[in-house]
Amino acid sequence: MKTPREILLKRHQTVEPKLDRMWNKSLAPAVAAVCDRRDSKYNLFLAAGWALWRELVLPSRRVWAGLACAWVLIAVLNLASAEPATKAVSQAKPPSGEELRALIEQRRMLAQLIGPLSEPVYPQKRTAPGPRSERAAQTTVA
Questions:
Q1: Residues 6 or more apart from 111 whose CB is under 8 A from it?
Q2: How many CB atoms lie under 10 A from the CB of residue 64?
Q3: Residues 70, 63: contact at Cβ < 8 Å?
Q4: pTM of the predicted model over 0.70
Q5: Which helix (H) or strand (E) holds 35?
């Protein structure tokens, strides 16, 4: 049984000479002309850019597309959750005396429910060990 590749190659074998003639007539001189103009700086930068594109972007198109989608999602979520700063500043007002009294009352009630808070006990810091060598002891004495 023949593979699909063999079938396609056999079917298009008659077109191969025509393609070779087309290549030799029109495409080969154009490619040679581009290859001969490599001394220009523009072509050098173009070739370097194309090489970077081929080596970095094309092999991992799906990864770059995923990163682009993630950044777009982050930007959309950031814009959606942003609050206008001017409204927040204009709406901020100092608390009234009534609100302050209510806050003090809430804190007093919380202190009654929880009980007095004890001071946290911090362990003492260890002192650094003394010098190990006799020379260090001699230099401190002398």
A1: 117
A2: 13
A3: no
A4: no
A5: helix 28-36
